[in-house]
Specification:
The chain is an alpha+beta fold. The protein is built from eleven helices and 17 strands. Helix 1 runs antiparallel to helix 2 (about 20-30).
Length: about 400
């Protein structure tokens, strides 16, 4: 049995809460690792939490000014040699189908690290990521380790509802982020892909705290229920509308944008139910995309919904923002303008989709200044690559 296979088997056989110990033991045995650290990205995606005595962590490491942060941001191994000791530390990104989880930091003798070892350790980090995601069904260890602060109950409900914070396939890449990460209210996003389609849902919920989280939970699960029953996009909106109105009788409702992309052609169906705003960056030019606005979900009884056609081309970037972006005021009372958003979208055009939401929200925080946010803000970025023509 080769060393990678032995390490992979050790991880797959480990108890969910004991993955760190399993990877430490396996890498020490098979690769001569002197130390192995697991660094988990926090909910705000600004720090990496070193997991020590679980569920407690050591001092956090900033993403933007550290060696592990370079590996996390670039999603490539970053090696730091120490000629004084003859060792090196390889920082290896941990991600699952494009969803960035953290970094595996492995310190070992320099002579034991070559191109083959780097590839194997990169694969080990990927296996570890999958095992963490699966293990989170059965243990709170990794969810606790992600937290720099305590989540509000509403935020706990919202984060558990999300599919992830990024996702990638050859045809597209998605990145998304919510702020304030530890106290979000009703904003939400959801996606699901099949062999030939991608469905993306952007929700701008109303209200605060638990009530906002309950409303969004009802809406997202109603939409999932309809989607999994094979209903059309317009019927998904109708079913969710009925579920929300049946419970709240028009006293609570929420704005939602539903999109269904054909992965072969880029042909897209859109239902704009009082939605968050959508922007397109094409060939370096940012412009807002206007579609026919329909009633928010749950506002009136038996509201009919219809789809509108849209088309994306390879190289297009779509960015979706909630009203928590537009409503942010500076200390002097100046609202964040469309001009400022266009500048932020243009400035981030070279970043991968997974990093765009965080970069835009950082600009937003700079505009807001030291005051606390009075609404949650959401940014979702979709980069469309398209599917190669096989004719």
């Amino acid at each position: 049995m080769d060393r990678f296979t032995a390490t992979e088997r050790a991880l797959r056989r480990a108890a969910p809460h004991a993955l760190l110990q399993a990877v430490q033991d396996a890498l020490a045995t098979h690769y001569g690792a002197v130390s192995v650290d697991l660094l988990m990205a926090d909910y705000a995606m600004t720090i990496l939490q070193p997991v020590s005595e679980l569920p407690y962590t050591a001092e956090p490491i900033p993403v933007h000014t550290s060696s592990p942060g370079r590996a996390f941001g670039a999603q490539q191994p970053y090696v730091v040699p120490d000629d004084r000791t003859g060792r090196l530390t390889a920082h290896l990104p941990i991600s699952v189908r494009g969803d960035r989880v953290g970094v595996l930091a492995v310190t070992l003798p320099q002579e034991g690290y070559d191109a083959e070892a780097e590839q194997e350790l990169t694969d080990v980090a990927e296996v570890l990521g999958h095992e963490i995601v699966v293990g989170e069904r059965d243990t709170d260890v990794y969810l606790q380790a992600r937290r720099a602060n305590r989540l509000t109950l509403a935020a706990e409900m919202q984060w558990q509802l999300l599919p992830g914070r990024s996702c990638s396939r050859p045809e597209y890449e998605i990145g998304a982020q919510l702020e304030p990460a530890y106290a979000i209210y009703g904003d939400n996003f959801d996606w699901s892909s099949s062999a030939n389609h991608l469905t993306l849902v952007i929700t701008n919920g109303m209200g605060e705290g638990i009530e906002a989280a309950l409303l969004t939970n009802l809406a997202v699960n109603a939409l999932r229920n309809a989607r999994r029953a094979g209903l059309s996009l317009s019927d998904q909106a109708c079913l969710a509308d009925q579920a929300i109105y049946g419970h709240y009788h028009g006293h609570a409702y929420l704005s939602t944008l539903l999109l269904r992309f054909d992965l072969d052609t880029g042909q897209t169906q859109i239902v704009d139910a009082g939605s968050p705003r959508m922007w397109r960056l094409r060939q370096g030019k940012a412009e807002q995309i206007h579609v026919e606005a329909q009633m928010p979900l749950g506002m009136f009884e038996d509201t009919p919904y219809s789809t509108e056609p849209f088309h994306v081309e390879p190289g297009d970037r779509l960015v979706f923002v909630s009203d928590g972006v537009y409503n942010v005021a500076s200390p002097g009372g100046e609202r964040y303008s469309e001009k400022a958003l266009v500048r932020a979208l243009t400035n981030t055009r070279l970043l991968p989709a997974s990093q765009v939401p965080r970069a835009v929200l950082q600009e937003l925080a700079g505009h807001r200044g030291p005051i606390d946010a009075d609404d949650d803000a959401m940014v979702v970025c979709l980069d469309w690559n398209g599917r190669p023509n096989t004719d």
